[in-house]
Amino acid sequence: xxIATLGPKGTYAEQxxxxxxxxxxxxxxxxxxxxxxxxxxxxxxxxxxxxxxVIPVENKIDGLIGSSFDALIEYQDFVKVCDEVNxxxxxxxxxxxGSDWKKLHTVYSHPxxxxxxLNRLEEYFPGIALVPVLSxxxxxxxxxxxxxAAAICSRKTAIAHQMxxxxxxxxxxxxxxxRFFVCSLTDGPVTQxxxxxxxxxxxxxxxxxxxxxxxxxxxAQIDLTFIQSRPYKIRPxxxxxxxxxxxxxxxxxxxxxxxxxxxxxxxxxxxxxxxxSYPKRKxxxxxxxx
Length: 290
Ligand SMILES: O=C(O)C(=O)Cc1ccccc1
Prior knowledge:
Layout: E1 3-6, H1 12-23, E2 33-36, H2 38-46, E3 52-59, E4 63-64, H3 66-74, E5 80-88, E6 91-95, E7 106-109, H4 111-116, H5 118-124, E8 129-132, H6 136-143, E9 149-154, H7 155-160, E10 164-168, E11 177-184, E12 194-201, H8 209-219, E13 224-231, E14 239-246, H9 252-266, E15 271-279
Parallel strand pairs: 1-2, 1-3, 7-8, 7-9
Antiparallel strand pairs: 3-4, 3-11, 5-11, 6-9, 6-10, 12-14, 12-15, 13-14
C-alpha cells in the first residue's frame, strides 16, 4: 500500500497515515509513505501513483482547515473521501539545543498549529514573530537553523531532532485533536455509521437557497454535522457551500435528499458534487484493540 501525506517526515499527518495503514492491516515501508503537500497528495491519488492520501481537515481548537476543502473540491472528479482518522494532538514549543528562551524572536509552525496556541504564545512571549510554514515538521527543520527561533511541533519530532523543549502542551485548550480525511479513487463502504460530504454551488442567486437544501436534508431526517462556505475563486463574493451530514450516500434517505438537491441546483445552473462517504471513527486513544 502506498500513501501520500503532508511532509516532511514528522508531521501529525504522517502519524495519521500510519494509523490508517495499521487499521487496514497493511505493512508500510518508509518508501511507501510519500511526504509532500496536501494538493500533490490528492494529485498522486488521481494519477494512481498512490492508493491513498491523508490530509488534515479539522482541528478541535482552530476549526476546519479551509485549504484542504478547496483541494477536495479541486480534485473531486476523481478523488473521494473514504475514511477518517481522529488524532489526539499535543504540541511542544521546541528549539535547537543550547538556545535561550529569553532570546526567542520567531516561532514557526503550520498556520492551524499557530492558531491553536495563540493565547499562550501571546501570554508567554508578547511581541514574538509568528511565521506560518507548510507543516509542523518543516517548522522544526527551520527552527534548527536559527539560534533565536522555535517551532510548534509534536514531542516526537522535537526529540527526533534532539531539540530542547521550552514548553509542553503549549496549545490553548486541553484534549486537542485533529481530524484527517483518507482519500482514494472510491468512497468508503457502508458501515451503518457513516458521514457524507457534499459541495453545492447554487448558480444564480435566489433567496432561501441554503434553507431549501437544509430542508431537503431535514425532511429526510438527515442530521447535519457542519456547513462551511468556501470562496468560489473565479468570482468575488460568491461561494461553494460544503455540507457534512450523517448517512452514507447509498442509503435510501440520503439518496432522496440528494436527488432533490440536484433538482434544486440545476434550476439555477448550479451544481452539486459528492466529495465522499466514509465511516465515522473514534478518537484514536479511545479505540479498543481486538
Ligand atoms: O503540520 C502537521 O504536522 C500536520 O499534520 C498538519 C497539522 C497541523 C496542526 C495540527 C494538526 C495537523
